[in-house]
Amino acid sequence: MQPQELAIRLLPKGIALQILRFARKGCPVNCGEPWSPEVIQRAREQGPHVTALIPENVELLWDDVTYQNGAEFVRIERASILFRAPLPPELKISRVAVVPQTGRRGRIIVNLSAKVDMAPTAEKKRRARPHHGSEPPAKRHRPSVNETTEPAEDQGAVKALGTAMLAILMFMFDVDPEWVIDWQKIDLSDGFWRMIVEKGKEYNFVYQLPRRPGDTEDHFVIPSSLQMGWKNSPAYFCTATEAGRELMRRILALSVETGLDLPHRYEKYCVPGGIPDHMPAWVAPEWFLVLARVFVDDYINAVAGPPGRSERVAQILWLARAALHAIHSIFPPPEVLQHKGGRDSVSEAKAQKGDTMFAPQKILLGVDCCGEPRENRAVNIPDSKLIKYTTQVEESLCKPYISYDRFNKLHGRVQYCSSIIPHFRGFMSPMNRQLNTSKALDKRHTVSLAQDSDVREALSALVPHMHMARLIPVHITEIVAPDLPHIHGGVDAAAVGMGGYACPCTMFFVPITWRVDFPDDIRRHVESQGNVITNSDVEAIAGFVYECMVEDLVGRTEGISSFLWSDNTPTVSWLQKYASKASSRIPELMLRLLALRHRWDRRGPHDIQHWKGKNNLMADFASRSFEQGYPASPAGDHAYLTEFQRRFPLPPQLGSWRLVQPRTEIISAAFSILRNKIDWSIQPGTEIGNSGLGLPVTVAKTRTSCAFKAPATQWNAATCSWPLLDPSGKVDTAAMVQAYQGRRSRQRFVKSRSTWSIESLRTLGDNMRRSPSSTPT
After folding, report:
1. Going by fewer Cβ within 10 Å, which terminus of the chain is more open, N or C?
2. Under 8 Å between Cβ of 174 and 753
3. Residue 127 pLDDT > 60, yes or no?
4. In degrees, to the nearest 5, what angle opens at C-alpha 270 toward C-alphas 339 and 295?
5. What counts of helices (H) and strands (E) characterise the chain?
């Protein structure tokens, strides 16, 4: 890394000075106290990790290190030279390992987290007192390099890695539904090796190579660059790559009106269909959005605009040139560095494969992203991964038990899928519980997959949904919520019944209140001393009924986002996280059925938040009305509605309350969950429907229609058109808007937003021209 004049002139002074320091002096290294000769000798005796001793990996290691040595990234020393007295004061020796990768060569990692086992010598073992306990005495260990490393001061860039996928999803949602998004990914070659460490500090990262046939002594590698396994490498490297992203933004800001005429040698790999022989004159864009994010060594860029615009190729070329020039201004090509044997910082191999080509559909960070307009704006897990994960689950289900490690990997696969396919979370409660139990017991024990196992049941139910996920991508409105929910309301439950209310937020319908009295058997269980059915169970079921009523209220479900208030803490946790830790099976069943229904209906995110019980007046009155003199009868319903309107009058814009009785199918499903008597048989005619999901009869009957509808053309509802009530019945639009905009499903994406509009780029460009950089050159 050697920042060029373009970077030094355009970047903010603090960023420019930081990367200049890294380039000239190297990245700071403080790995703790020096190791004693005894520790160094013991680390040397341990040698490379067992994965590095496999013959094909021995060849891989030597080929890779030979290239690094020729390109001056590392230095190879014979043991007889390295260990001559006096030893380098910073010398520490770690173990090199090779991590296998599917379909490609293994990844070489220096295990700087491995402790040095200071096992006693044979003489010390002979003199040691015999151990009479059940456990052997603990071995002495020397802390690893990573354990004694002082963390890098600036962790901002590396922390931003966790928001990269969220930023991509938010960009897909922000872009006008009628526009098309073109994606690009530029991969850097050699990654961490492009940044050096402070002179003399490279001895902290020494590792031993496995011997080749014919070697008479050991060889050791002394790296002068950042190492893959060092804890501070991502922080320093991401600081540099983020500087490249900021430089790209500033290049775009200064060239909005003029375009970029300076060609780049890799731009031919970026423009679909090739660069025209005669490019038309640059036209400054008016309606245009840009995304640029960096994930370690991947620059992920996107440009969005109307699909038929004549300037599409010119805009793609403009963005490509800005990105390529920014990268080469931070990480120059070998001819600029006079780096013999080195590779270009832009991976030409990946460019030739098509990674850098702008296209509406591309796999980014392991997710298949489609930027086409309207109903095609969707994401999914790549087919290769879904096939792999499905096969692993099906193979596991053929056995009565599996090892903890295998189960842990399965859990991780499903959890990864659930980040893109939200309804998968509804199947994970038994797996989460088993994982926590296994950790508490012993990681060496096995996980039962017996026929009556909850884990087997959850995995078996999940398999067809993993298959169907390949056919039916997840629309962006199923993952990202609009600025405000379409519908909001509250629920409550008591021993005698449950009820609540629902009001419009950005999609109008007549405000409603609803209530349901419990049958005698459910009342007895709720009121029983043993609490067969807990208060939290019935509160959660009230939330289930509310969610099932959404379609009946607004007339459609695709992309609809709802919000719910509840005064029950467990209910809030279950419905928000889509997971339950309760000993009762009722929340678990409810969450699975709710997940099935949401996926079938293509529902948007739903949120739930806690509201103090003493102020949850509207829902509380609805649930307790049966014991307050308003029985379940026509006369009782009329009296209840009259009293409800008197207590909680609506503003004129919303009209008058109406009492709605949830459909029989919805109530029947809710009571089936409470009784733990779910009909899991598949509803005829739904298995091959447009949604691709087979629904249990219990859930299928709660639906009004099985016909699939495309998401609404305009899904970014951002303003509230009607007064908003809080759960006490008070009109408090400002407070409710603030609460809804800060809700969990929305805020996590908003905080990750990385969109650059033309207006913001113009503003930045004007500010840069008025305040020229004072950064020294």
Report:
1. C
2. yes
3. no
4. 70
5. 29, 23
**76, two tokens:** 């190879």
DSSP assignment string, 251-315? HHHHTTTT------TTGGGTSTT---SSPPPP---SS-EEEEEEETTEEEEEEEE-TT-TTHHHH
Cβ atoms within 10 Å of 719's Cβ, excluding its own:
9
Sign of the alpha-carbon torsion through 639, 640, 641, 645: positive
- For the segment 494-517, the average pLDDT, to the nearest whole number, is 95
* Residues 752 and 479 sit within 8 Å (Cβ to Cβ): no
**In whole angstroms, what is the distance from residue 125 CA to residue 130 CA?**
9
Residue 413, token pair as written in the block: 């696969």
Tokens of 50: 């067992």
Condensed to tens digits (0 to 9), the pLDDT of residues 50-82 reads: 999 999 999 999 998 998 888 888 999 999 999
* 3-state SS, residue 27: strand
For residue 295, pLDDT over 90 is answered with yes
Strands 116-117 and 219-223: unpaired
The pTM for the full model equals: 0.91
Residue 693: its pLDDT value, please? 66
- Give residue 360's pLDDT band: very low, low, confident or very high (50, 70, 90): very high
Mean pLDDT of the chain: 89
496: closest CA among 513, 518, 515? 518
Cα 112 to Cα 132: distance, rounded to the nearest angstrom: 35
* Sign, Cα dihedral of 205, 211, 214, 216: positive
Give the C-alpha separation, 16 to 240, whole Å. Answer: 10
* Strand-pair category, 93-101 with 755-757: unpaired
Structure confidence at residue 132 as a pLDDT band (50, 70, 90): very low
Q: Give pLDDT tens digits for 644-701.
A: 999 999 999 999 999 999 999 999 999 999 998 888 887 776 654 455 567 888 888 8
- ∠ at Cα 112 (39, 416), nearest 5°? 150
Question: 262, 237, 253, 259: which is closest to 324 by C-alpha?
Answer: 262
- Alpha-carbon separation of residue 175 from 129, 288, 751 (angstroms): 72, 9, 17
3-class DSSP state of 600: helix
Coil, helix or strand for 450? coil
* Residue 112 host element (H or E): none
CB 610 within 8 A of CB 567: yes
Contact (Cβ atoms closer than 8 angstroms) between residue 449 and residue 401: yes
| C-beta of residue 608 within 8 angstroms of C-beta of residue 477 | no
Could you give the CA distance from residue 594 to residue 426 in angstroms, rounded to a whole number? 8
Instruction: For residue 597, report the phi and psi dihedrals to the nearest 5 degrees.
Output: -65, -40
Element (H, E) at 437: helix 429-441
Longest dimension (CA), the chain: 100
Residue type, 392: Q
Share of the chain above pLDDT 90, in %: 68
What gap in Å lies between CA 357 and CA 302, rounded to an integer?
11
Confidence at residue 125, expressed as pLDDT on a 0 to 100 scale: 45
Q: What angle do CA 135, 139, 140 make, to 5 degrees?
A: 150
How does 197-228 read in b/e, with b if 16+ C-beta sit within 10 Å?
bbeebbbbbbbbbbeeeeeeebbbbbbbbbbb
**Helix, strand or coil for residue 71?**
coil
When pLDDT is averaged across residues 100-108 and rounded to a whole number, the result is 81
Query: Which pLDDT belongs to residue 777?
Result: 41
Checking if the pLDDT of 172 tops 50, the result is: yes
Length of the chain (residues): 777
- CA dihedral (324, 327, 330, 331) positive or negative: negative
Q: CA–CA separation, 592 vs 542, rounded Å?
A: 15
